[in-house]
Amino acid sequence: MVEAIYKPGLEGVIAGETTIAAVEQTSLSYRGYNIADLAENTTFEEVAHLLLYGDLPTSKQLSQLQTTLAQVRPLPQEVIQVLRKIPTDVPMMDVLRSTLSFAGHFDPVKGDAPDDLRRRAVWLMAVSAGVVAARFRLLKNREPLDPKPGLSHAAQLLYQAIGEEPDETATRLLDLTLILYAEHEYNASTFATRIVASTMSDMVSAIVAGVGTLKGPLHGGANEAAMNMLAQFDSADAASKWIREAFEKKHKVMGFGHRVYKNGDHRAHILEDELRTLAEQKGQTKWMEIYDAIKDPMVNEKKIYPNVDYPCGLTYYLLGLPIDMYTPLFVCSRVTGWCAHFIEQAMNNRLIRPLSRYTGPAERKVAPIAQRV
Ligand SMILES: CC(C)(COP(=O)(O)OP(=O)(O)OC[C@H]1O[C@@H](n2cnc3c(N)ncnc32)[C@H](O)[C@@H]1OP(=O)(O)O)[C@@H](O)C(=O)NCCC(=O)NCCS
C-alpha cells in the first residue's frame, strides 16, 4: 500500500518520468539540448524530429520529414467543408478542437506501432497548421490555399493564411516561437494527453484533450489574454496607471508567473530580445514602452516574471496576426510535444489514476422522495 500525499494543483509532485524535456529553475532542455542552443541553431522541423524520434535529424532524415509533411499537408475536402459551416464568431481554438477531432476520421496512417504513431504525429502537425491557415482565410472571405512546395513549416503556415510568401523576419520569428513552444514536460495540456494515452485511447483523442486544456488563460490562452491586455493601452502612462490599479485590486496579470519558474522563464528572455529588434525594425517602439510599463513593476516590485506568452503575444501582433490565432499557433507547435509524450506514455504505460480526498457529507440514508425537503 502506497502512502497517499495531497498537494493542491499537484504542485511539486513528480507525476511521472520523461526523457523528452527537463524544466529546471536555471535551464530548459529538449532531450538534453539547451533551449537557447536549439533556438539559435535549429529549425522547428528539426525540433519536431528531435521530440518525435529522439534526436536531431541528419540531412537525409530532415528531408524525409519534410517530404512526409508535404505529402500530408493538403486538408481533406470534408475538413474544409466543415470549416465553412462553423459560425464566424466561434473562437479559433474551438474551431481547431472540433476540426482536429473531425479530421481524425480521415487519418491516413493505419496502426499503432511506434513508427505509425510518429507518422500520425507528423500528420497532426500538418493538419493543425492547415486548419489554422484555412480558418484565417475563410474568415476573410477568401478560399483556402493549396500548400506551396519548398517552404518551411512556418513559412508555409503564413503563406497559406496570408496568401503571400512571408519575409525572412516573419518566417524566422514564427519558427522561433514554434521552437520555444514545442515542449515543456508535464504542463497541464501535456499531462492531459498523457492521461488519455494511459487509458490506451487514441492519439487524436489525446490531442483534442490537449487543445481543450491549452485554451485556458492560465495556460496557453495567456498569449491572447496578454495581448488583449496590452492592446487596450495607447500609451505607457495608461499602462502604468492600469498596473497600479491591478496591484491594488490584486488582479492577475496575464503572461506573468509560472508554476515552476520562479525567477524567470528562459523562453521569455530569448523571445524578448528578438521582439525588441522587431519593434525597432517596424518603428513600433511605442509597444515596447507599454510592454515595459507593465513588466518593470511586475518584476521589480512583485518579483513575478514574464513567461513566454508575454513577449509572444506582442511578437505575433507586430507580425500583423489576429489575436484569436495566437493560442492556435501554440497548438501548431505543442502538438509535437504532446505526440512525443503520447508515444512515451503508450510505450511504457501505467494507467494514470490518482486519488482524491473526500470532503463531502458523512454517510447518510436515502429518504423517500415525498419526505425530502
Ligand atoms: C501560471 C500561474 C497559474 C502559476 O500559478 P501558481 O503556481 O499557482 O502560482 P500562485 O498562484 O501560487 O502564485 C503565487 C503568488 O503570486 C501571485 N501571482 C502569480 N502569478 C501572478 C500574475 N500573473 N499576476 C499577479 N499575481 C500573480 C499569486 O496571486 C500569488 O500571490 P499570493 O501569494 O499573494 O496569493 C499564475 O502565475 C498565473 O495565473 N499567471 C497568469 C496566467 C499565465 O500567464 N499563464 C501562462 C503560464 S505559462
N-to-C SSE series? EEEHHHHHHHHHHHHHHHH
| Computed CA radius of gyration, to the nearest angstrom | 22 Å
| Strand-pairing-aware structural class | mainly alpha
CATH architecture of the largest domain: Orthogonal Bundle
Helix content: 55-70%
Please state how the strands of the largest beta sheet are arranged side by side.
Answer: 1-2-3
Q: Give the beta-strand count.
A: 3
- End-to-end separation: 42 Å
What summary fits the major beta sheet? 3 strands, antiparallel
Report low-confidence residues grouped into runs of 5 or more: none
- List the total number of helices: 16
Mean pLDDT: 97
CATH topology of the largest domain: Citrate Synthase, domain 1
Tally of domains: 2
> What is the CATH class of the largest domain?
Mainly Alpha
Gross geometry: globular
Roughly what fraction of the amino acids lie in strands?
Answer: under 5%
Bound molecules: coenzyme A
Relevant CATH superfamily of the largest domain: Citrate Synthase, domain 1
Q: Secondary-structure blueprint of this entry?
A:
Blueprint (H helix, E strand, L loop, with lengths): L20 E3 L4 E3 L2 E2 H7 L2 H10 L5 H14 L4 H9 L6 H12 L10 H26 L13 H10 L5 H14 L6 H11 L4 H12 L7 H10 L4 H13 L17 H16 L3 H18 L6 H10 L7 H22 L26
The chain binds coenzyme A.
The site of coenzyme A has 15 residues, from loops.
